[in-house]
Amino acid sequence: MATNLDPADGRDLVRLVDALTKLLARLGLSADPGTPIPPVNSGQPLPREQLVSLDQCAAMVHITRRALARYRGRGLPAPVRPGHAGRPTLYDWRVVRPWLEATFGLRLPECHPTAQHENLG
């Protein structure tokens, strides 16, 4: 089924696309279709990383740190910051949370209540 378009409509469409592209640029967004859309949230800025220790992860699923450590090499996501000099190994909550939910059958909050919010980038 062919549709006849009036050339004036095509010019209107070009002007509309141009206006939308300029608006997106002012908002700091891209008109590129491959650009991911930022998530909608409650107006709170989302931290790039929510860093949690193995102890904090274990507490959320009601097991000991030692029991959770046994999952290293058996599905536990890799840490984002290895521990050293008395500092704990840290995991990104956004990565480890889905694994904990699937492994232990619990629903966990999207934001860990005691996570360190840091930008590692």
Termini Cα gap? 51 Å
Total count of strands: 3
Order of helices and strands: HEHHEHE
Main beta-sheet annotation? 3 strands, antiparallel
Low-confidence stretches: none
Major sheet: order of its strands?
Answer: 2-1-3
Number of helices: 4
The structure class reads: alpha+beta
Shape: elongated
Proportion of β residues?
5-15%
Mean pLDDT: 78
Share of helix among residues? 25-40%
* Rg estimate, integer Å: 23 Å
Describe this protein's structure:
The chain is α+β, with helices and mostly antiparallel strands. It has a domain at 54-118. Helix content is 36%, strand content 9%. The protein has four helices and three strands, in the order αβααβαβ. Strands 2-1-3 form a three-stranded antiparallel beta sheet. The longest helix has 20 residues, at 7-26. It is elongated and about 70 Å long. 15% of the residues are buried.
Which labels suit this protein?
single chain, 121 residues, three-stranded antiparallel sheet, 4 helices, 3 strands, 36% helix
Q: What is this entry, summarized?
A:
The chain contains four helices and three strands. The chain has 121 residues and is an alpha+beta fold.
Secondary-structure map:
Elements: H1 7-26, E1 49-53, H2 54-60, H3 65-69, E2 90-92, H4 93-104, E3 116-118
Antiparallel strand pairs: 1-2, 1-3
